[in-house]
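We emphasize that the prediction below concerns an isolated chain of 340 residues; any contacts that depend on oligomerization or on bound cofactors are therefore not represented. The input was used exactly as deposited, without trimming of termini.
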Amino acid sequence: MKTSGNVLSLLGIAILTLAISILLILMVGSHVNQAFFSFLSGIFGSFYSVSEVLVKATPLILTGLGVAVGARSGFINIGAEGQLYMGAIAVTGIAFWFNDLPAILMIPLVILGGFVLGGVWSVIPGFLKARFGISEVITTLMFNYIAISIVGILVRTVLKDPASSLPMSAFLPDSATLPVLMSATRLHAGLLAALISVALIWILVWKTPAGYEMRAVGLNPRACKCSGISVYKNIVRSSLISGGLAGIAGVCEVSGLHHKLLEGISPGYGYIAIIVALLGKNHPLGVVISALGIAALQVGSLGMQRMAGVPTSISSIIMGVVVLLILARKSLFRRLLTDE
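Result of the prediction step, given as a C-alpha cell string:
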C-alpha cells in the first residue's frame, strides 16, 4: 500500500542519513561508538541539556511557522532572518522608550511590537509580489542584509551601551525580560509564546475562511481570481503574518535569552527556518517536530565536539543531506511510493 511505501521510504532516508553520518565521523578520525554516545549524552545527558534543545527550538518554531504560513499562500519567505532582526530592534527600542511600564504591560507590548515590525519588513516584499509580480525570493533575501546592517548601525550609535566599548545595547529593564520557566536553565517563556503561536496559526489556517482563502491562493491563484478570492489581499496578509512570527522570534531571543541587542544575535535561525518548514510540510505540528529534531541535532553535535572531537559542522552537512534526500524521495523510492 502507499502508506507502507511512505513509511519504508522514510526508513530508507533514515538509514542513508545514518550511513553518511558514520562515514563523516570516520573521516574526521573519531570513534563511531564514542561519537554517538556523546551525541545522545549531549541531548539527554542532563536536565540542562534537554532544556537547551527547547531553547534552540523556540526561535526555530516561530521562524519555521512564519515560513510555513507564507508558503501556504505561495509567498516564499527567504527573509525570516531579517524579520527576526527587526523584531529584536523592536523589543530593544520599546523596552528603553517605555522603561517605566510594569512587566504585565511591557511583555505584551514588546511581543506586539516585534510582530508589527517583523510583519512590516515582510509585507513590503509581499506587496511588491502581489502588486508588481516582483520575486519575493530576491527581495526577502536582500532585506536580510539590510536588517542585519541596521542592527549593526544601531548598536554602534543610538542603542549603544555607553558603559561598554563593544557594539551592543545596554541590558533591558527587568520588566522587558521574559521569565525563566525552569531554574538553573536558560529556558524562558518564549517557548510558551511559540506553542501558543502554533495553536493560533493552526486555527487560522485550517479552521477559518481566511485560512481557506490563503491555502486556495497557494494552490491555484488563477482559479481564485476567477472565483472572486483576492490573490493580492491573501498574499499581503500571509506575508504580514509570516514576518510577524519571525519578529516574535527576535523578541524572544533578546528578551528571553540575551537581554540586550547585539550583532550576530541569530546564528542563522531564519535560514534554518526554511528547512524546518520544508521538513514539517508547512504544517504547524510538523514545524514543531522538525524544529525539535534540528535543535536536538545542533545540541547533540556540540556534545560530540566536546567529548569526541567531532566538528559541529557535521550537523550542517547532515541537515543538508536530509533535505536533499527528502527532495529526491520520489525519485529514489519511486516504486515504494506508487500504489500497488
